[in-house]
Design a protein that fits this description.
31% of the residues lie in helices and 25% in strands. It is an alpha/beta fold. 53% of the residues are buried. It binds uridine-diphosphate-2(N-acetylglucosaminyl) butyric acid.
């Protein structure tokens, strides 16, 4: 297993280009199943999650080639098993979003239930209720969801809770249903909007993506497409925090500034300069950060995928910050690891009180999930001494070659292949 070692205390300076968005890429990979024509995706981030999704597409019968530019040919899916097996779904929950496309295009699908995960129980009841509303017959058998429908039919559906994946799954299915669907209380995340843009390019008729009501007029067939994936707002936010806490000055080229308002507002509140420049977002860290209160919310609120990272900023900031997690019930796994580096964090239910400024000190720490790992890298950038991060595979799910990119802007960071001798 790889590990990453960081010598803390170096200011970050320079330019770094933001990669394509993981969570958009994964869903567009799923959307490629809605047609039997080939799809080409560009600006694809090279991540283990994207590779896992490609493996799933291959198991379903697609021919998949490339990495930065990904060519997906689903022509042979009809002859395949139409099954997403447990071994892939358990490594990556986003696999369940093949459900909607397979059901809509082929009339049936068999998808493993994902089970819980490191950050919470994460049920999929809303995915199933939404597909049922479109006419799917659903059975749970031996840990698998089995779905059938000759042809889905358009319907109204109100989500009980705002869910990104649920919105995307049902939206994709509704594209090939007979008649019009009206989905209410949907997620407004940029990755939902991006998926809608892609589906429209494929011939779907969708209105309202980016608002809380989406209307979809079903069509008989969709076609392939060539699409370049939007930049990742969470990667950009993570690198922005890296610049902020190291008193750095970094230009995040192509940062999707319009999707980062909540993040930028919090950085500015902490005293960070965020300048929108023609090439992207320039982030300049102050000599002393100030405490900020943050509560995660569905978009356009502050993203849960940035909660762990902002906690490191809070630890470096002067004063007491209150960080509240409202989306997932167990997303404070980074706290004990940050505490081992000296952070003063007190968790009470869904909130954490962070008192700073703390001079973090390097330690050997263990990554537990993707964003928790990112927070440990950030802590390592400012900690005195040499921080060693184990279980780096969590990081590789969502950050492409993070060590190379941070090194380019001045971090002392190295990856070692294999365990310590
Ligand atoms: N929920 C339900 N029932 C459902 C679906 C969701 O109760 O049927 C609950 C979840 O348990 C959670 C909340 O609703 O408490 C929100 O979950 P959501 O469905 O929105 O999350 P997701 O679609 O599974 C995506 C991202 C996550 C990101 C969340 C929230 C992808 C592939 N994943 O997950 O990304 O945290 O939205 O924004 O798009 C990450 O990139 O690190 C990551 C975890």
């Amino acid at each position: 297993m790889d590990r990453i070692v960081i010598e803390g205390g170096h200011r970050l300076r320079g330019r770094v280009r933001i990669n394509g968005a993981k969570n958009a890429a994964l869903l567009i990979q799923c959307a490629s199943l809605l047609t039997d024509q080939a799809t080409t995706l560009r600006h694809v981030p090279i991540l283990s999650d994207v590779a896992t999704m490609s493996r799933l597409l291959e198991r379903l019968g697609c021919a998949v080639e490339g990495d930065r530019t990904l060519a997906i040919d689903p022509a042979a899916v009809a002859q395949g098993s139409l099954e997403a097996p447990y071994d892939l779904v358990k490594t990556m929950r986003a696999s369940i979003t093949v459900m909607g496309p397979l059901l809509a295009r082929y009339g049936r699908a068999r998808v493993s239930l994902p089970g819980g995960c490191a950050i919470g129980a994460r049920p999929i009841d809303q995915h199933l209720k939404g597909l049922e509303a479109l006419g799917a017959k659903i059975q749970l058998v031996h840990g698998y969801v089995e779905l059938r429908a000759k042809r889905l039919r358009g319907a109204g559906f109100v989500f009980d809770t705002v869910t990104v994946g649920g919105t995307q799954n049902v939206m994709m299915a509704a594209c090939l249903a007979k008649g019009t669907s009206r989905l209410e209380n949907v997620a407004r995340e940029p990755e939902v909007q991006e998926l809608a843009t892609v589906l429209v390019k494929m011939g779907a008729r969708i209105r309202g993506a980016g608002t809380s009501v989406i209307e979809i007029e079903g069509v008989d067939a969709l076609h392939g497409l060539d699409h370049s994936i939007l930049p990742d707002r969470i990667e950009a936010g993570t690198l922005a925090v890296a610049a902020a806490i190291t008193r750095g000055d970094v230009l995040l080229e192509d940062a999707p500034v319009d999707h980062m308002h909540a993040q930028i507002a919090k950085l500015e509140e902490a005293g960070v300069q965020c300048r929108v420049e023609p090439d992207g977002l320039r982030v300049i860290g102050p000599e002393q950060l100030e405490a900020v209160d943050v509560a995660t919310q569905p978009y356009p609120g502050f993203p849960t995928d940035m909660q762990a990272q902002i906690m490191v900023l809070a630890a470096c900031a002067r004063g007491q910050s209150l960080v509240t997690e409202t989306i997932f019930e167990n997303r404070f796994m980074h706290v004990p690891e940050l505490a081992r580096m000296g952070a003063d964090i007190h968790v009470n239910g869904h909130s954490a009180i962070v008192r700073g400024p703390t001079k973090l000190s390097a330690a050997t720490v263990m990554a537990t999930d993707l964003r928790a790992s990112a927070s440990l890298v950030l802590a390592g950038l400012v900690a005195a001494g040499s921080t060693e991060i184990l279980r780096v595979y969590h990081l590789d799910r969502g950050y492409e070659a993070i060590e190379k990119r941070l090194r380019k802007i001045g971090a002392q960071i190295k990856r070692y292949h294999g365990a310590r001798a």
